[in-house]
Amino acid sequence: MRFDLTTLQLFLAVLDTGSISAAAEREHIAASALSKRISELERSAGMPLLTRHARGVSATSAGRSLARGARLMLRQAADLSAQIQDHAHGVRGHVRLFANLSSITQFLPGELKSFLAEHPGVRVDLEERVSSVVTRAVAESEADIGVFFLSDDREGLVHYPYHKDEMALLVPAGHPLARRRSLSFVQTLDYEHVGMHRGSAASFMLHRRANEANREWRVRFHATSYDALVALVHAGLGIGVMPLKALALYRQEGVKIVKLTDEWAHRRLSICLRADDTQSSAAKQLLQHLLASARAAE
């Protein structure tokens, strides 16, 4: 089977838009020319890659397989181009780091600062993602390193223990629970909460813990950041569970921290890489720096 990157990009555009005409408009190519490229691609594959129907097109099983490989190839081509440009500007390494909000808030800023001071020729691109997306991105080569809460045993990844992370309760100063020094999560469920956004690992975990106790986690507001969560609690709009170290960063007057006694409130972040050992020397250097920083903090 023979294909070029331009044809693969056009094929993915067809899948993304659901029609050849929409893809042609997005990619600034004549619909007839795009249709011809797709037909030639199918002829080269020896089988249909698209199912045509009245409302547009969708991928066949073979088309979905090709799409997965095409996305990987296009990412790798873009990475190669970026690496060449980096070398032209004196950059000697490039690492794509995906991490969850908890690690970015509490640990990564200082550790990345010290790493970049030691390796000024390395460029690190950091993107915040929820833990489930972090592991998928690393497995699919979209990211080189991932920092996340261990949530699955996705094949093809190797995990390393990173920092410990303790969850605590934040309450307004005048709240009935403000007098408590510690309590269990179940004891908080009589009150309305402020939670992180619905797709976050924290929201998933707290929903699960409440369900395990046959209780409802009543969330009045969802926040997209820890500082927003603290502000909502400070305004008396609910109580919230968040990492203890993050509370130290965003704490305001008029709120109180209460420790959680649940075992699950003491978590550990993990770092993941692909198990195929294809990481660059810069990625391996960053991994060792992060692991050493975590060990030093124990």
Automatic annotation (TrEMBL):
GO cellular component annotations, sorted alphabetically?
A: cytosol
Please give the Pfam families that the UniProt record associates with this protein.
Answer: HTH_1 (PF00126), LysR_substrate (PF03466)
One Gene Ontology term of the molecular function aspect: DNA-binding transcription factor activity
Q: Which UniProt keywords apply?
A: DNA-binding, Transcription, Transcription regulation
* The keyword Iron-sulfur appears for this protein: no
Family designation: Belongs to the LysR transcriptional regulatory family.
Name by which UniProt lists this protein: Regulatory protein, LysR:LysR, substrate-binding
Q: The organism's lineage? A: unclassified sequences, metagenomes, organismal metagenomes
